[in-house]
Amino acid sequence: MQRRIAVISAAASGIGLAIAEALLGDGWRVYAGDQDVAAVAALGGRHEGLSAMVCDVSDAESVARFFACIESDLAARDEAGIDLLVNNAGISGPTARFEEQPIDAWNATIGVNLNGTFLMTRSAIPLLRRRAPGSAIICMSSTAGLFGCPLRGPYVASKWALIGVTKTLAMELGPEGIRVNAICPGSVEGPRIDRVIAADAAERGLTAQEVEREYKRQTSLRTFATKEDVAAMVQYLMSPAGARISGQAIAIDGHTESLSLDMEA
Ligand code: NAD
Question: Fewer CB under 10 Å: which end of the chain, C or N?
Fold first, then answer.
């Protein structure tokens, strides 16, 4: 069977790297883009089949350079296109009441999370078409794309928007046999959620332990997800079992009941 090929944004660490490592383990070739120059350099040569390159998804020129490198590498390998784009890049944005959100931080959050997905996707579609039917796009939304979430206005706006983008792309590309889905992780264990918890605790005058307990109580399973849970869903969606799944927003979150916070605290 032909070796399958993925492009993953923000793949030098965190969930993106876990997805890259899972797909590499399944025999895929992976093009990993990330804005962190040092992390990209550290990844170089670490895995057979992984090409790591600098790419800031919010910068149209950076995305164009990334895809120019991918296309020339594909041509050198006599490969036609790619099987999967994972729009994984997304920043947390500020923790603040809506009316106190700084416009620059609002624009930066939308710039990475939403505009970045637009820039990556429009460059990837011609490459995905060359491997259709059977190619796919996965957008990394969040449970913040399914619920309101106090103090996270720009993040929530961007993650809801990604579900609209996912459903629209699924309709535009479905007739060509290209599937498009969104994954909605809940809080994922790791340094990023620790930073979000610390910012929330500072904003509301609570301890980090109190906020973590509150977040876990928001889910029926009283749990956080792991990056491996998210990577496993990508593997499932790209397995034969996922071949009829498109246009969906799939939560991996221990069943979030609500993202409500005690704003009186
Ligand atoms: P992270 O904050 O750990 O960052 C991972 C990588 O993103 C870093 O290597 C960073 O350099 C890169 N990055 C940041 N801005 C970028 C840009 N403009 N262009 C390219 N790369 C960029 O993130 P994570 O926890 O791995 O999250 C990955 C995705 O999952 C995001 O879209 C995030 O919103 C979503 N998500 C995360 C959680 C969580 O709890 N961690 C929960 C739900 C959804």
Answer: N
